[in-house]
Amino acid sequence: MGLMPEQLRSAPDIESVIDAESVIGLGSLGERMLILLDIEKLMSGVDMGLVTDAC
Predict the structure, then answer these.
(1) H or E element: which one contains 36?
(2) pTM above the 0.85 mark?
(3) In the prediction, which pLDDT does 26 show?
(4) Buried b or exposed e, range 30-53, using 16+ CB within 10 angstroms
(5) What is the rounded average pLDDT of the residues 28-55?
(6) Cross-sheet strand order for the sheet of 32-37
């Protein structure tokens, strides 16, 4: 099941523990509001602790 374009909104500019660069946008599905994430970008961030910032 996919979301139709009319169900999508731009990502709001909010403060969060999740890197804002990882948030693609918002989607609505019935009564639910979904946060759409770029999971690859999210999981590769230094804050996730899965990679290190060793330079």
Answers:
(1) strand 32-37
(2) no
(3) 86
(4) eeeeeeebeeeebeeeeeeeeeee
(5) 75
(6) 8-10, 23-29, 32-37
